[in-house]
Structures are given as structure tokens and as C-alpha cells.
Amino acid sequence: MDLDKCTGCGVCVKVCPVSIYELKNGKTNVKPGAEDDCIQCHACEVNCPVKAITIG
Ligand code: SF4
Ligand code: SF4
């Protein structure tokens, strides 16, 4: 995650099927404790318009 690139557009919040992200202070934020819910679908990574997200 490169928060310097994030524009707070909210696309990742919308596309994540397991609702990991929320917007906080104009940036995306992983909800506390939600990391483990990620199913590695890569939707956030593919859809982020500024390529701020990398799913390992
Ligand atoms: S899709 Fe990218 S730019 Fe938009 S809120 Fe998420 S990380 Fe930030
Ligand atoms: S890769 Fe993980 S965080 Fe990204 S949209 Fe899919 S489930 Fe959500």
C-alpha cells in the first residue's frame, strides 16, 4: 500500500468483496483486524486508478 499515491477515491472500498477497506482522513485504510479476511482476489489492486495497492 502506497498511501502517498492514494487519492481517497473509494474504489477499493467499493470493490473489495469482503469489505476490508474504509476511508479515513481522505485515504484508504484497512479496517482494524480485517487483513486476515482478504481472499487475494486482486480486485482492489486491479481497480485502483493510481496503482496504490499491491497484494502480496
Ligand atoms: S482505489 Fe486506490 S486511490 Fe482509490 S481509495 Fe483505494 S487505494 Fe486510494
Ligand atoms: S485482494 Fe483482498 S483486499 Fe483486495 S479486493 Fe480482494 S479481498 Fe479485498
Overview of the molecule:
Helix content is 18%, strand content 14%. With 56 residues, it is of the alpha+beta class. It has one domain (1-56): Alpha-Beta Plaits (2-Layer Sandwich). It has a two-stranded antiparallel ribbon with strand order 1-2. A hairpin with a 2-residue loop joins β1 and β2 (27-30). The longest helix has 5 residues, at 11-15. It is globular, with a radius of gyration of 10 Å. The site of one iron/sulfur cluster has 12 residues, from α1.
Write out key terms for the chains shown.
56 residues; alpha+beta; Alpha-Beta Plaits; 2 helices; 2 strands; 14% strand; globular
Please provide a brief summary of the model:
The protein is of the alpha+beta class and 56 residues long.
